[in-house]
Amino acid sequence: MNPDPNAAEREEEAARSISHKPQIGQSLRQQRAAARGSRGAKIAVISTDAAAIVASMSVAAWLRQTSVSTPEALGPMVLTGALAVPIWLCVFARYKLYTAAAVTSVTAEIRRLLHAVAAAVACTAILSLFLGTETSRVWLLLTFATALPTLIVERAIVRRAFRRARTRGQLQRKVLIIGTNAEALGIVQMLSSNTGLGYQVLGLLECGDQTPGISPVRVLGSWRDAPEIVQALGATGVIIATSAIDTPVANRLARELIEIGCHVELTSGLVDISADRLLARPLGRRAVMYIEPVRRLGWRAVAKRAFDIIITAGLLVVGAPILLVAALLIKLDSKGPIFFSQVRVGKDGKLFRVRKLRTMVADAEQQLELLRDRSEIDGPLFKMRDDPRITRVGNVLRKASIDELPQLWNVLVGEMSIVGPRPALPSEALEWTDDLRSRLRVKPGITGMWQVNGRSTASFDDYVRHDLYYVDNWSLLTDLAILAKTVPVVLFRKGAF
Asked: How many other CB atoms are found less than 10 A from the CB of residue 273?
């Protein structure tokens, strides 16, 4: 057989091609290092969970032993508890509490914790039967009652520690974004402004004839070279903006990237819809996202109303002396009534009078038009940090949110809720878009998503986005989360405006 005369040239071309390939060995070392960091973080979470479980079981056993005063009852509880801890951790893993993608939001994590703790307690009861130990059912109930809040607090501390580490550049996943359209640029902007999410965007990969917009990161090449670029840069993940690329191409690219050990995430194209409402399911050979409807009626409405009444009654009892002192200080500080009453727009557009402690001079409403052009927020809202109409006592009352206490009466009579969108003025409502009128589907609240998340930013768009997100994704768990966030906002005066 005659030797191929072009063989030598092809060998040289192949050698040149290989020499220009990315340094795969180096990128693999970077990926292994990232994997070790991820495993270390997971081990830390498992360890703190185990400590919280042991502490909860111990407290429950102590409470049970104290109530019955029989040391003999402690033995079965200790034995069952010791053997149950690994089972609890396995149950937690089954509920994906150690999968970062499943617990990105606090509400999702709390929901999974609730179900996992209930399942783990049931497994502990089954273990007790299998061992033949007479474990107290009261102890099991006490374990559930102590474990759930303990784990929620422990997870909050861990989440805070992780967020701090990520803001310092640690525990971050290096990712590439496939796409250069508006959706892709929006993802870059979000991840760049919120480093606590744990993503470091290395760059963009263009698709087709899209014209790249202004982005804080560079366009590194084409989507066709994604596997090579991923390995060259040591990236551990890729986010595909599905609106920027055809479905068959996205499927093929996802398969190739997964094959080389890369984490792949695809956007849904949906904005401001809670991930808790999305259910991935098969439709033939396609994966589709089912959006669960928001249910505000039935037992949920009864539970929300009961929640409002209980919280309001407690706050009125605690706040009564504060109201009396505040009323006296208002009267001594400036002329005018103690309370300020104003018409606001409630649920379904029904008007009602909201009551607050007066924090401004008596003729504040008449002075408003003279200050309108000095508003520090766009849109129909009027917000001004150094409003000259605010009195000395009023400034203190506002910073501590004491001026809002009389609104508890509005909650008690059913005109408002503890948690909900800010009650708007009729003049503001006249300038609303049709989308913003959707906020009238729920009662206005004393505190809300905008108050605890966006009040410090002078943006009407944030006001709209937070309120509509709350209305569209409402749940009892969301109300509890907002109420929990309200406490540090009030105590540390965050976002005061």
From this structure: 15
Residue 211, sorted as left (phi over 0), alpha (psi -120 to 50) or beta, turns out to be beta
- pLDDT for 197: 77
Give the separation between CA 52 and CA 63, rounded to whole angstroms: 16
Average of per-residue pLDDT across 301-321: 90
| Alpha carbon of residue 455 to chain centroid | 17
Number of Cβ within 10 Å of residue 253's Cβ equals 22
Among 167, 287, 168, 186, residue whose Cα is nearest residue 239:
186
What is the value of pTM for the model shown? 0.66
Can you read off the two tokens belonging to residue 15? Answer: 């050698």
Name the strand (E) or helix (H) holding 19: helix 7-19
pLDDT at residue 454, rounded to an integer = 55
Average pLDDT across the chain, whole number: 79
Neighbouring CB atoms inside 10 A of 51's CB total: 13
User: Which tokens hold the place of 192?
Assistant: 């760049």
Count the neighbouring beta carbons within 10 Å of the beta carbon of residue 247.
9
Nearest to 457 by CA among 385, 386, 401: 385
pLDDT digits 0-9 by tens, 262-293: 888 888 877 778 777 887 788 888 778 888 88
Rounded average pLDDT over 443-461: 74
417: left (phi over 0), alpha (psi -120 to 50) or beta: beta
Residue 370, Cβ density class (10 Å: 0-12 exposed, 13-18 middle, ≥19 buried)? exposed
In angstroms, the CA 248 to CA 207 distance is: 13
In sequence order, which residues have a C-beta less than 8 Å from that of residue 245 and are 6 or more positions away?
Answer: 178, 179, 207, 208, 223, 253
Asked if residue 464 lies in contact with residue 436, where contact means CB atoms within 8 angstroms, the answer is yes
Helix (H) or strand (E) holding 204: strand 199-206
pLDDT of residue 19: 36
Torsion of Cα atoms, 58 then 59 then 61 then 62, to 10°: 120
Q: Is the dihedral of CA 387, 393, 399, 404 positive or negative?
A: negative
Token pair listed for 325: 């002192």
